[in-house]
C-alpha cells in the first residue's frame, strides 16, 4: 500500500510538471504583455522581470536581439533597454524561482506588480467558505435523497427524485445562477444581485452567500443522489441480501444491517475526494455573481491576458484535481479491505 501511494504521488507531480510545461511554453509564445501605468511603474516591473529571468537589461541598444520591449531613462540620464530572453531561458528561470523562492511572478493586469501567490492566497478564503457550506449541505441531502429513491425504486417518489437529479446535472452552471438571480434577486428580490463587498452590512454579506451556495450545491446534491441510488439498488438486488432475508431478517433489518454498509463502500471515497474540491472554485458561478474567488480569478486573468496569474491559477486547479483523484483511489484501499492497492498479481 505504501509503495502504491508513493507511486501515485510521484505520478501526480509528474503529470503536473508536464501540464505546466506545456502551458508555460504556449503562454510564452504569445506576445509580451506590457503592464499599464507610468514609465516608473513599468521600469519597476521590468526590473523584477530581469530578476525572474524573463527579460534581460542593457544600457545600449542591442541589434542582435531585435526590437526592445521597453526603454527607460532614469534621473541621471542613464538609458535602460529591456529585451525578451528565449523561452528555454525563461522556463528554467521559472522552475528555479518556483522551487527556490516560490515566486510565480507578478500580475500584469489584474493587480499590476502584485505577487501572483499573494493574489491567489487572498482569493481562496471566499471560495473555501462557499464550498464548505455547499459541501455540508450537499452530502447529507444528496445521500438522503438517494436512499429514499432506492427504497422506493420504480415508484412515484423514485421517478420524481431521479428526474429532478437528471435535470439539475444537465443544466449548466451559468444557466442555474442566472435563473436564481432572476427569481430571487432582480426585480426587487430579497437577495443581493452581486456578491457583497467587505464594507457592506453584516446582514447583506450573509445574504450574499445564499445564491452561490445554492447554485454550487444543487448539482452536487443531484450527483450524490444518483450515485447513492445506483449503488444501493445494486446491493438490494444482490444474492447475499436475499440470503439474509431467507434467514429471517425483515427487509428493513437486511437493508439497515447489510445493504447500507456495502453500498457506502464506493460512496465514501467519492465524498472524500470532494473534500479536496472544497478549495477549488466554480468559475462560471463566481464570475457571474461577482464572487472574488479563485474561480473568478482564473476567468478574469484569461480575459485580461494576465499570463502569470493565469499560469498560477491553472497550476492550482490542476494540482487540486489530481489530489482529489489520488485521494479517491487511495481511500478505497482503507475503506474496503477487499481492495488491494499495488499488490502483486496472483
Brief write-up:
The chain is mostly helical and 346 residues long.
Describe this structure in words.
The chain is mainly α. It has helices at 2-28, 39-52, 87-101, 116-151, 156-170, 173-184, 202-207, 210-236, 239-246, 251-276, 283-289, 294-304, 307-335; strands spanning 55-58, 70-73, 79-84. Strand 2 (70-73) and strand 3 form a beta hairpin. Helix 4 packs parallel to helix 13 (307-335). The chain is elongated. It starts with a helix and ends in an 11-residue tail after the last helix.
Which labels suit this protein?
346 residues; mainly alpha; three-stranded antiparallel beta sheet; 67% helix
> Which term fits the overall shape?
elongated
Give the strand order of the largest sheet, numbering strands 1, 2, ... along the chain: 1-3-2
- Percent range for helical residues? 55-70%
Number of E-state strands: 3
Largest sheet, strands/sense/barrel: 3 strands, antiparallel
Give the distance, in angstroms, between the N- and C-terminal Cα atoms: 16 Å
Average pLDDT works out at 85
User: What is the helix tally?
Assistant: 13
Outline the secondary-structure elements:
Blueprint: H1 2-28, H2 39-52, E1 55-58, E2 70-73, E3 79-84, H3 87-101, H4 116-151, H5 156-170, H6 173-184, H7 202-207, H8 210-236, H9 239-246, H10 251-276, H11 283-289, H12 294-304, H13 307-335
Antiparallel strand pairs: 1-3, 2-3
